[in-house]
Fold:
Amino acid sequence: MVTHEHTDHIKGIGALSRRLDIPVYANEGTWEAMMPKLGNIAPHNVRVFQNNMDFYIQDINIQPYEIPHDAADPVGFCFYAQNKKISITTDLGHTNSRIIKAVMDSDLVILEANHDSEMLMAGRYPMYLKKRIAGRKGHLSNEDTGKALLEIIKGKVAHILLAHLSKENNYPQLA
Structure:
């Protein structure tokens, strides 16, 4: 399951698919952007889904939803199985009502809390990278994650896991 084509998300999936003969799932925009980076994938292992349309892998219902990030066609996922729901949303610059609605009432929400804004701006990254990370298609700050969680917890969320914390610009206790 590929959320977007950035190297930190696709490195090794071509080799993994070839070695284990397993399918790779991505939307059309992501496939187009990542295909030159993967090497040959067996045609029977190329699986294309449509954003905002459910699909199934065995008995797991998967709902991909669009997210704002600087990639071709990035998505988050909700997984449904045995009356449980897990939502995974990382690598996004901001949240919106569609994303909040998608992850509401999850048994587990995995949500990005990438950086502390002050640490990011005071850190050693070059300014262009700081602007990219802090931008509307970059990564969620702790503050933006907190605001999103205030909305998400209005539903029946059982567990929350913060993910994609920057090693340079965040730490777990702060997030």
Notes: DSSP finds seven helices and eight strands in the chain. The chain has two domains: 1-49, 51-175. The mean pLDDT is 97. Strands lie at 24-27, 46-49, 55-57, 60-66, 75-81, 84-89, 108-112, 159-163.
